[in-house]
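Intended use. Records such as the CTP synthase entry shown here are meant for training and evaluating sequence-to-structure methods. They are not intended to support clinical decisions.
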Amino acid sequence: MKYVLVSGGVISGVGKNVSSIKVDPYLNVDAGTMNPKEHGEVFVLSDGGEVDLDLGNYERYLNITLTRDNNITTGKIYQHVIERERRGDYLGKTVQVVPHITDAIQTWIEKVARIPVDDSGEEPDVCIIELGGTVGDIESMPFVEAMTELRRKAGRGNFLQIHVSYVPVIHGEQKTKPTQQAIKAARSAGLLPDLIACRCERVLEQAAIEKIARFCFVDVSHVVVVKDMPSIYQVPLLLEQQGLVPLLRDILSLQNLTISPASVQKGRHTWSQWKSLTSSENRFFDTVSIVLVGKYIELHDSYLSVIKALEHSAMRCRRKLDIQWVDAEHLENVSDPANYHKAWHAVCTASGILVPGGFGQRGTEGMIAAAKWARENKVPYLGICLGMQIAVIEYARNVIGITGATSEEFNGEAADKIIMFMPEVDKETMGATMRLGLRPTLFQPGSEWSRLRALYEGKEEILERHRHRYEVNPAYIDRIEQGGLAFIGKDDRHERMEVVEIKDHPWFVGVQFHPEYLSRVLDPSRPYLGFIAASAGLLDELTADYMKGNGPASEAEALVNGVNGLTVNKETGLF
């Protein structure tokens, strides 16, 4: 097994999101109970693991499927070691950070690194590990020690460290001293960076590159510049242009690995698709404006996967994405006229309205008002998890006439709890007790008219990831459907409502699952894709393509052959 360790210095979170294993030095066992306004979204994996949002980036970029064990936290490691100590596995020895914690970290990584990440079932050749936080943090030290030992065990040609640092510009001058100090701290801790990735706002001057190479003891060619790009999807192209691929091949002796011709061809084809799609992104001139009505808009990372799914869909529809962020509470608060009118102006002028997931009562009346506007004014609407429940409540109140309709989450004493707590869920324990992970949804007989189902190419069953505690109350389902809101998708036991849609509307869809978790650059999530296409006036055209079997693969192939009159160089994949 070959390892690539990605560590950070100067500041955390500067773009080293390239790993298939993420180390988070916090004591939480998982990310499930973390506040999204502080930590960003909780990403859910197919096995139900609630993990750091970076694992979503890994899956999207690498097109792989990870497990909960790919996210290592201090809490997980200590819990594992303490459980072993209680069982007597250490034979009465004094349990210490070194060697017991550090050995447990290495064993965990070595085991997880060999888990297949795609349908081939093959063991990976390379495992990329991101060491979260900043080198020098006290919380990270056991992991740093474990990585130095892992490097020694792996041996020459099997371990590569990339250290990511930020190069600030002060009074117009690029300052390399913070990077020098960060590398010095890393080396003193036992980490020996082979490559230095410099995050910067603009291209580094040659003098700055040479200074970093000289004082950080690496070759000039081993200083990689990761400057700001028009789109994050163009960063891989930037790295390729700087010769990162041959550097990795030489340091890790990748030329000695045996790779099947089919895998090589598949990789080349996928890379050609990626370059064709992402390099055309800055050529989109028409804009699609989407208003996101949420609870946690102060930190956009709270909705990171939602944003990515919208971006993927907008690229597929060849549109520039304009997201208007609206705090749901501002749609309620008439006593704050400035924010109230600004929020409603955004809602009323948007091409589409999106209500994502969330927890608690705060802002829900504003969300209900936004859903009502979308339904009555034929504006494309997409409700995700809470957003679907909001759509059901709104419809029950304003169409069916159940004026007191609400959710048990909002008012446990209400008479008409249209949305109820799932009976099998533990109400007392918060962590990992929701309905989580990849689960089937069955489209119901008679739903052939569904615009969403058409984008799933008419399939009867789909698999999507879930994360929720509440569901539509079965006691109200018949009454709601008779009123015109169709539950076109249900779970495999036909008990839980998964998808709602209004027939006589350009696009009014709510889904209980979180389709954003499975969205990919070359294969956008269908609910988001339909929503964006409807908002851009392209839904009929897009649906016709999908019903003909011209889905993501054929679209990417079309990009290689030329799009919108543009000529594509088939050798480089560039327009």
